[in-house]
Specification:
5-stranded parallel beta sheet, 14 helices, single chain, globular
Length: about 300
């Protein structure tokens, strides 16, 4: 089974491409890392607890308000009386209330304001948040990939905004980067989509996911090393043009990974393991090559 890694940046059209691939004529299952990232931090999970422990004291609005109680019409004195037993000590209701408070959902907007940005403090907080979420998401991804392989799909889309940064690109047979050439177009699309954002907020969110043009260069280098292992889709025009680009790209990918090959890998799991290891080795080599060249460029700049 081909793992098609889909990445880009916020408001470059990655979600649109994901939607196109999930519909006819492709009908590919999509593993959305953003959705998994929400699921792994649901109240009661280990990731949720670690986030609250680290950010809770310094982020007063980290948790959303609890639902309104059906006894909200009671006076505060009535509630105080109801929460004490005859000895004057707090009753077990208070303990239950505290437990309920601990299970309030995360305020994603507040958490985003805390970690989005390019100053050292926000970079540190973002690194901590990623160190909590990424391992949990990675485990969920592995389970989902195995499930779709067992069900006989020839390919699965792995939709990850930080595909390269998280190292998940090494598990992808093909990487597809969706980008735009003009940074200003990128910012304007985000402002049009999320009208509550200021321009500074938009710039911070774009910066937090990395320059998509750098991701495109990384994909192009990977494809030069191993033809067909990466492709860039530029979304500078409209939706119809983007759909045409996706169609062109998928024709090439389908030729490189025909239906009979997918069925053969499903019938022969040992062969699927060997092919997966081969793709991982190629991707790892491309990753090392990119990192080496990046370090050399940084040395020249210094």
């Amino acid at each position: 089974m081909l793992i098609l890694g889909l990445t880009g940046s916020i408001s470059t059209g990655k979600s649109t491409v994901s939607s196109i691939l999930s519909q006819p004529p492709y009908n590919l299952p999509v593993i959305d890392a953003d959705i998994l990232a929400r699921e792994v931090v649901q109240p009661g999970t280990k990731a949720y607890q670690r986030i609250v422990e680290y950010f809770g004291d310094t982020t007063p609005d980290l948790l959303l308000a609890p639902p309104r109680s059906s006894f909200s019409a009671e006076s505060s004195q009535d509630r105080d009386d109801a929460q004490r037993d005859v000895s004057g000590r707090p009753s077990s209701n208070i303990e239950e209330s505290n437990k309920s408070d601990q299970l309030r959902p995360l305020n994603r907007a507040a958490l985003g304001r805390r970690v989005f940005g390019d100053d050292p403090a926000r970079r540190k907080d973002r690194a901590v948040l990623n160190s909590v979420i990424h391992p949990a998401v990675r485990r969920a991804i592995y389970v989902s990939v195995l499930r779709y392989y067992i069900r006989g799909y020839w390919a699965v889309v792995l939709d990850v905004p930080l595909l390269f940064e998280s190292g998940l690109d090494v598990f992808c047979g093909t990487v597809l980067v969706v980008g735009v050439h003009d940074p200003e177009v990128h910012i304007q699309r985000l402002l049009a989509r999320d009208q509550g954002l200021t321009r500074q907020d938009a710039e911070h969110r774009v910066a937090s996911q990395g320059d998509v043009r750098v991701k495109a260069r990384r994909a192009e280098m990977r494809n030069r090393m191993f033809h067909g292992s990466a492709v860039v889709v530029w979304n500078d025009a409209g939706r119809d043009e983007l759909r045409d680009e996706v169609e062109r790209v998928m024709r090439d990918i389908r030729r490189a990974s025909p239906a009979w090959w997918g069925r053969l890998l499903w019938v022969l799991p040992p062969l699927a393991v060997v092919v997966g290891l081969w793709d991982t080795w190629r991707a790892w080599r491309a990753k090392r090559r990119w990192e080496d060249e990046t370090r050399q460029e940084e040395k020249k700049d210094n």
